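2024-03-11 09:14:02 INFO worker-7 job=invfold-0412 stage=load source=structure_tokens
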């Protein structure tokens, strides 16, 4: 088991080895923060100009269930901002990628590449598609999620695993993804920049403990429109909401 009591498989460790060895070959000067590596103290990490943020198998529970809802995530962070991201979906063979200022793209298993764009919408539109997590429903936060969903007009709600939910917003098959439960930086860094380059946003929605206890009012923090930050002292993400291209 990992430190957060989620499962650890041989696939996690082997994927991590391959990715880290590859990154060290192409960028030996850039440190790597990975879910499967020992995390260095922030006193060292705070001096990083750039760093890789890696989740070698995002959605380990989905991988074990063999439901196909898992991904491989590699993000590059400059300072505290994700500036490059690659997310591979092994089951479909699709690879999503983005570089700051260059747009977001997906390459399918046949090698065809196309640009991805978040769908434009107004929060007041009826029937918006909201997506949530398959394996991390937290009874403690059911009230918060219920309150969030009630902000929308007859929304459709579906559950999926791993970073697929961020990718769905990026490519326009979903409008909103609220996450009012714990995640780590490697769970979002790579997909964050893909969403941004597709025209969407990933906004903070208040601090949370690793056990899922909300420490701030998500509504108050969300209104501040704060982007996610990476290589923080605590690698635990705040709650967040992913929006497609909001119409003002």
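2024-03-11 09:14:09 INFO worker-7 stage=emit residues=248
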């Amino acid at each position: 088991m990992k430190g957060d009591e989620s499962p650890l498989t041989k696939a996690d460790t082997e994927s991590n080895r391959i990715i880290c060895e590859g990154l060290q070959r192409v960028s030996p000067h850039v440190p790597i923060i990975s879910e499967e590596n020992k995390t260095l103290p922030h006193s060292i990490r705070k001096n990083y100009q750039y760093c890789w943020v890696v989740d070698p198998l995002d959605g380990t529970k989905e991988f074990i269930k063999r439901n196909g809802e898992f991904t491989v995530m590699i993000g590059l962070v400059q300072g505290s901002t994700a500036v490059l991201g690659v997310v591979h979906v092994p089951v479909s063979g699709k690879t999503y990628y983005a570089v700051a200022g260059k747009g977001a793209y997906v390459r399918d298993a046949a090698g065809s590449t196309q640009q991805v764009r978040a769908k434009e919408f107004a929060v007041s539109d009826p029937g918006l598609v909201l997506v949530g997590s398959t394996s991390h429903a937290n009874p403690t936060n059911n009230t918060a999620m219920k309150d969030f969903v009630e902000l929308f007009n007859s929304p459709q709600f579906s559950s999926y695993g791993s970073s697929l939910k961020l990718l769905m917003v990026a490519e326009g098959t979903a409008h909103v993804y609220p996450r009012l439960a714990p995640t780590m930086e490697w769970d979002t860094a790579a997909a964050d920049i893909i969403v941004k380059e597709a025209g969407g946003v990933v906004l903070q929605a208040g601090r949370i403990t690793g056990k899922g206890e909300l420490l701030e009012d998500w509504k108050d923090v969300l209104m501040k429109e704060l982007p996610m930050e990476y290589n923080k002292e605590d690698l635990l993400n705040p709650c967040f909401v992913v929006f497609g291209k909001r119409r003002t």
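2024-03-11 09:14:09 INFO worker-7 stage=report msg="The two ends are 45 Å apart (CA to CA)."
2024-03-11 09:14:10 INFO worker-7 job finished
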